[in-house]
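User: If only I could read backbone structure tokens as easily as an amino acid sequence. Underneath my words sits a plain record pairing an amino acid chain with its backbone structure tokens. This is the protein in question:
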Amino acid sequence: MATSDDESTASKPSLLARLRALRSDVRGAQMVEYTVIIGGVAMACMVVFVTLGVAIAQSFAFNRSSLFYPYP
């Protein structure tokens, strides 16, 4: 006859069994992958906007000064 300790350990999976089950569980993996991809694209866009933004702002400043002050 089994004791109460044997029954409680038989009904609970071991830590190793839970880790194996967790490793084989792939629910939500696609959402994480898409989140990483979207984050990478957003970071690349921010770098491009910052890099080009400075050059465009300097170009506008030069053109504005040329239009408002055509004669030196």
